[in-house]
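Every protein is a chain of amino acids, and every chain bends into a shape of its own. Below is the pair of lines this work produces for a single protein:
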Amino acid sequence: MQAKFSPSLMCMDLTRFREQVEAMNSTAAFYHVDIMDGSYVKNITLSPFFIENLRKITDVPIDVHLMVNHPEDIIPMCIEAGADIISFHPETANNKIFRLLTQIKDAGRRCGVVLNPATPAETIREYAHLLDKVTVMSVDPGFAGQTFIPQTLNKIRQLIAMREEHGYHYLTEIDGSCNARTFKQIAASGVDVFIVGTSGLFNLDDDVAQAWQKMESIFAEETAAA
């Protein structure tokens, strides 16, 4: 399967929002939008207002990652703003996971969960049949530029094995420090989607179209023998 890339838009140059989005519209599989509340993680980033404006200039699926303590408060706003996929951390919704996943799917959107480095793959067992995507954090959530945690690749393999054994349909995705130093080992795990941010994409060139070409070339070179 050909690798899919999802640029993390909290890492883009927001002063060049339209220019950079339009440069990636023909190549990005998804746009990854992080929404943080300053409580679940000690950072505040993008918002449903950002999704609303992104929707105006792209048909690329908008994939929202909620790093918030109360996803039930943000999910309706993301749906209204035009998000295509909405994922949250299961620790934030233990007593309402089925209700939230159903709410997202009933709105005609795709749903997912995000597993922290220390959260086991088995966590999703009871509702895996509902999921369209499972994201594995390969760094602790909340900030860009952290060190890659290689043990998380075992979780990707476990999720793929579960999918094959039970006929689940979710995509697997990895989030955190996807770049030239890690592409080869990540690709070997069989993951479907790579989220790329500062080190993997935006810092490669001031021109994001050129940065994308460089990223693809690096990925092809690093994974040629994977």
Summary: The chain has a mean pLDDT of 95. DSSP finds eight helices and eight strands in the chain. The two ends are 13 Å apart (CA to CA). The beta strands are 4-7, 31-36, 62-67, 85-88, 110-115, 133-137, 171-175, 193-196.
